[in-house]
TrEMBL record:
Coiled coil: none annotated. Belongs to the glycosyl hydrolase 38 family. This is Alpha-mannosidase. It is an enzyme of class 3 (hydrolase). InterPro entries: Ams1-like_N, Gal_mutarotase_sf_dom, GH38_C, Glyco_hydro/deAcase_b/a-brl, Glyco_hydro_38_C, Glyco_hydro_38_cen, Glyco_hydro_38_cen_sf, Glyco_hydro_38_N.
Length: 1074
């Protein structure tokens, strides 16, 4: 052997026996950065290192503001140095960096290393983004920017670095990755600012060695490939001398020979397609504004560094909102992304169907459609194509309706299930409406894979559908901001492309091509019907109650505005312009807040400051729009003269007779003919006769139906009986309710059906408090054992607040604990079988959950929960682990518990967490997690719910309608009206009770008076519906949610639209009005 220049050389004793385990540990030590890195392979990575060449100045932006580059360079810069610390949390510090390259570096590559222990972004002096930085010591660390491939020597470089005082996972107390609330005054130390000359051969060898060691450890010990890799790697260690860099080339020759010998082509046992990504949560442990910079940091690294150097590299990013931010704030970066989109390296199309990666449990059906509409339209406009893959790697369960046009679906989140292991990797997922989508769960069980041998081997082993498909997706790259794939990941994948002995060939690819290939090569895929329930994060149906309340409220407010505005346009109201721009703006705010860490309640406190600000904007601006459109539709501007009120029914069925409230201040109320006013005198109570679907109707003061019991003394329709001890009895024509002195319901007797609805020996409307300490994810999880520890709160006190012929109002003052209390108003009106509960809570608890329970006299194996444009039936028993795992589930406006012929529904106006177990309907009201928001849900809350006993099982009931009616009241305006009862204008009617006309909006690219209707089948039936309209409809076409027109809709002789429907079908129709 040729003598090395090192004082050491490879031993002649190389023929001695090697001990496998000790040799493996030797290899690990040889590759580790830390102990021994002054003498192992890491000692060879850097040829030169120089801190003196770097001159630093800093400008700390006052008041924690995030400012544009043009403003930043105007700042006043002060000298600074390595070792200084910068803060507090969320503040920004701009560094001006001047680097002088030593003469001796001529001809060599020079790299700038800058580690501020937090996130940063490197800029040129001209304001171009260069690269993102993630400092500190974690796996996602990347702190280097290459200044030149070949230095001249003596030249100068100038740069700016925008340092953001937060880590990749925010600034949680306890360090990186902690979900605790942020530490508000954390300072970050600038640990490194220097230039180096890297030894590229040594880096090359390091990545070879990582793959070799991976093969040794991850392949079965008795395989030739594992043994060969071990032998080769050990030989390399024996060959490299850190003080003789020429030895690297010799070692590289050994690894080259290994990979060359084992390279193979042709049919492989399995194919792993590797897709680079950086999952950027749109807000989470940092605010929305920081996400804008996180996108810039991550994506600049992709386009300016990785794509420049690795032509085969493919990166994918989702969420139209992040692209729009980048377009607005970093236009140059956006242009480069568009260029790389054309070459197929940067794939926004393909994965970003929606506006944000939204939660899928809580948004309404229409909000769900709008996520796709705004997302797809954005990508089509900017990138010329639509996406085919619905990409939701991190969302907490999927109860979505499957929308037309959705071809492929991707997630991996169900691998986090904490009870049952999901049995499939590649399968057909069949939704409520019976349509199917090709689904793949990345079998590496992560969307932040490190692209190691272990990831590839595990993906193949964990793929549960190998009989049906030999394809797996590996989604790699660090998430959340400064991250994304790092160079070593790409280098490792390059080496693993064709290595005989690995269980798969590896290739770089895009989501679209992966799914297309999957579609072509798979066979006999199994089907999974219905909900993809996520067995974790069940607390996210309840945490951050106010956000959830605003979500429901704003979804329905936007619905009202669109209906009223469309009708104004379609009926030719003069001077009325459809508020398209403003509606787009408001919808985007609502959709943004549906991001999968915001609406579910799992973000830090400052995120909710932003979210609530956005909601307040939507409510204020939206209420104004709704009022304007309603007044325009009624046809007269509001005058100072008081007139009788007019109502509008914003639903597609006749609203039943009901008691409404009129404001005595603004409405022209003739007090002399009033039957009742509210206890405070501010509201006049009036009986309103039926209001037809989508119609205006004038309120008639003093109206009394002929079958109404006259208002005389004790024989009021709603009567009180306090004679039976301390019980209070409220009775109307439909029900008789018995309350005990604490406000609990002892009996709810249905007079029409002659049956009791409350379970014998039980009380209903009972508040229960349970200990709510999850295993780790505080705001996210309520765990199965919480029901083991807790019970009924202390008794409340019932009083009578209002009596009269039209309604009775009771009040319950209810202590919860020493520090929390509740006041409930219970309302029974003369016209309904419903008991309404309007609840105010002052809440100051720690890891406790408040629920209300209704034990009912119903028995069925299943209960029905509303979801987007449909319902889900879930078991009421816990026979097996899959049933038991659903001990807390998501529902929307109602949960219904019915048996043959009869049922009881619990309606709500803003709650989403439920359970029906045995005979108990249970609704979660408030939680009190302390992380990541220390003050989550502390303070005052108000919410409404109602118990609604009904004739008929769920399918024969009007429960869906009742859910709407509880949430979408008649719109009342105290203005004069030109409509009289005899000429009610009924804009739309649907003749089938199970088909709901939910949405009426202007067509997106509306010319003239084109509007879009969205209907859905709500009860699981099939047939033909007739949609009639008083509007002069010229033409009507079926379309999809993106409003692509397909076929013309058939009409009957009267011009009514004839629609064929099947269970849960969502129908969109575009109509042109004359
Ligand atoms: Zn996420």
């Amino acid at each position: 052997m040729k003598q090395s220049s090192s004082s050491l050389r490879t031993s002649d004793l190389n023929g001695m026996q090697k001990h496998r385990r000790i040799t493996i540990e030797r290899l690990e030590k040889y590759l580790q950065n830390g102990q021994f890195s002054d003498v192992n392979l890491h000692a060879t990575l850097v040829k030169e290192r120089n801190q003196e060449a770097v001159n630093l100045q800093v400008f700390s932006v006052p008041n924690g503001r995030r400012i544009p580059f043009a403003d930043a360079i105007q700042g006043s810069y002060q000298p600074t140095q390595v070792g200084e610390s910068f803060g507090p949390t969320w503040s920004t510090h701009w560094f001006k960096v001047t680097i002088t390259i030593p003469e001796s570096y001529a001809g060599q590559a020079v790299v700038f290393i800058f580690d501020p222990s937090c996130e940063a972004l490197v800029w040129s002096t001209k304001g171009q983004l260069l690269i993102g930085i993630t400092g500190d010591k974690n796996v996602d660390r990347h702190v280097d920017y290459r200044l030149t491939k070949s230095a001249k020597g003596g030249e100068q470089f100038e740069l700016y670095v925008e340092v953001a005082c937060n880590g990749m996972f925010g600034a949680g107390i306890g360090g990186n990755g902690s979900i605790n609330p942020p530490e508000e005054d954390r300072y970050y130390r600038l640990t490194t600012a220097e230039i180096i000359v890297p030894n590229t051969d040594a880096f090359d060898l390091l990545w070879d060695m990582e793959v070799l060691l991976g093969m040794v450890k991850e392949l079965p010990e008795n395989t030739q490939a594992s043994c060969d890799a071990l032998y080769t790697a050990n030989q390399i260690v024996n060959t490299v001398f850190h003080d003789d860099l020429s030895s690297i080339k010799k070692a590289k020759e050994i690894s080259r020979e290994f990979f060359e010998k084992r390279s193979h082509t042709g049919y492989s046992q399995h194919v792993v397609t590797a897709i680079g990504n950086c999952h950027i949560d749109t807000a989470w442990l940092w605010p929305y504004d920081e996400t804008k910079r996180k996108a810039a940091r991550s994506w600049s690294t992709q386009v300016f560094r990785l794509m420049e150097n690795y032509p085969e590299y493919v990166f994918t990013a989702s969420q139209a909102q992040q692209f729009e931010w980048t377009e607005q704030l970093y236009p140059e970066l956006f242009e480069r992304i568009k260029e790389h989109a054309k070459t197929g390296n940067f794939i926004p199309i393909g994965v970003a169907q929606t506006w944000v990666e939204m939660d899928c449990n809580l948004p309404s059906g229409e909000a769900f459609c709008r996520q796709f509409l705004y997302g797809q339209r954005y990508f089509e406009e900017k990138f010329g194509e639509r996406c085919t893959v619905f990409w939701l790697p991190d969302t907490f369960g999927y109860v979505l309706l499957l929308l037309p046009g959705l071809k492929y679906f991707f997630t991996q989140k169900l691998s986090w299930n904490n009870i049952n292991k999901f049995p499939h990797t590649t399968f057909m997922w069949t939704g409520l409406d019976g349509t199917s989508v090709l689904t793949h769960f990345s079998p590496a069980d992560t969307y932040t894979a490190q692209a190691s041998v272990r990831d590839v081997v595990f993906a193949v082993h964990n793929n549960k559908d190998k009989p049906y498909s030999n394809q797996s997706l590996l989604v790699y790259g660090n998430g959340d901001g400064g991250g994304g794939p790092l160079i070593p990941m790409i280098e490792r994948l390059r080496r693993m492309q064709n290595v005989e002995g690995l269980p798969a060939t590896v290739k770089f690819g895009s989501p679209n091509t992966f799914y297309e290939e999957l579609e072509q090569t798979s066979r006999d895929l199994v089907s999974w019907k219905g909900e993809l329930y996520f067995e974790l994060h069940r607390g996210t149906y309840t945490s951050q109650a106010l956000t959830k309340k605003y979500n429901r409220q704003t979804e329905l407010l936007l619905r009202d505005i669109e209906i009223l505005s469309s009708l104004c346009v379609a009926t030719g109201v003069s001077d009325f312009k459809y508020p398209k721009t403003e509606l787009d703006r408001l919808w985007k705010l609502v959709l943004l807040n549906q991001f999968h860490d915001v609406l579910p309640g799992s973000s830090i406190e400052i995120v909710y400051h932003d979210a609530l600000k956005f909601y307040a904007d939507v409510v204020e601006s939206g209420t104004k729009l709704r009022n304007e459109a309603l007044e325009a539709l009624i046809g007269r501007q509001r005058t100072s003269t008081k007139g009788p009120a007019t109502v509008f029914n914003p639903t597609s069925w006749t609203r039943p007779r009901q008691v409404i409230e009129l404001d005595t201040e603004t409405a022209n109320v003739d007090v002399s003919i009033l039957q009742q006013t509210s206890a405070d005198g501010r509201k006049a109570l009036v009986i309103l006769e039926e209001v037809p679907a989508y119609a205006l109707k004038t309120v008639q003061m003093g109206y009394k139906p002929s079958d109404f019991v006259p208002v005389t003394g004790i024989s009021t329709v709603v009567k009180f009986d306090t004679s039976s001890g301390e019980k209070t009895i409220v009775e109307n024509a439909f029900i008789k309710v018995v309350f005990n002195q604490h406000g609990r319901i002892e009996s709810l007797y249905d007079k029409k059906e002659g049956r009791e609805t409350i379970a014998p020996q039980y009380l209903a409307n009972v508040f229960k408090l349970y200990e709510d300490i999850p295993l780790y994810w505080d705001a996210w999880d309520v765990e199965v054992y919480h029901l083991e520890k807790g019970g009924e709160v202390a008794p409340g006190t019932l009083s009578v607040a209002e009596t009269g012929p039209l309604r009775a109002v009771l009040k319950v003052s209810q202590p919860i604990t020493k520090q929390s209390k509740l006041v409930q108003t219970i309302i029974v009106t003369a016209t309904s079988s419903m008991v309404e509960f309007d609840t105010w809570v002052d809440w100051h608890e720690n890891r406790r959950i408040l629920k209300v329970e209704f034990p009912v006299d119903i028995a069925n194996d299943f209960a029905t929960y509303e979801t987007q444009f449909g319902f889900i039936r879930r078991p009421t028993h816990y026979n097996n682990s899959w049933d038991m795992a659903r001990f807390e589930v998501c529902g929307h406006k109602f949960v219904d518990y019915s048996e043959h012929g009869y049922g009881v529904t619990l309606l709500n106006d803003c709650k989403y967490g439920f359970a029906v177990h045995g005979n108990v309907i249970r609704m979660s009201l408030l939680r009190s997690p302390k992380a990541p928001d220390l003050h989550c849900d502390m303070g005052e809350h108000r919410f409404r719910y109602a118990l609604y006993p009904h004739r008929g099982g769920f399918n024969e009931s009007n429960v869906v309608q009742a859910g709407y009616e509880f949430n979408v009241p008649l719109l009342i305006r105290s203005v004069s009206s030109t409509f009289s009862a005899s000429i009610e204008t009924q804009f739309f009617t649907v003749d089938t009770s199970n088909v709901v006309l939910d949405t009426i909006k202007q067509a997106e690219d509306a010319k003239d008076k084109d509007i879009v209707l969205r209907l859905y089948e709500a009860y699981g039936g099939r047939g033909r519906a007739r949609v009639k309209s008083t509007l002069p409809i010229k033409k009507a076409f079926l379309c999809n949610i993106l409003e692509d027109v397909t076929e013309e809709v058939k009409r009957d002789d009267e011009g009514a639209l004839l629609l064929e429907y099947t269970p849960f079908k969502v129908l969109s129709i575009r109509i042109a009005v004359d």
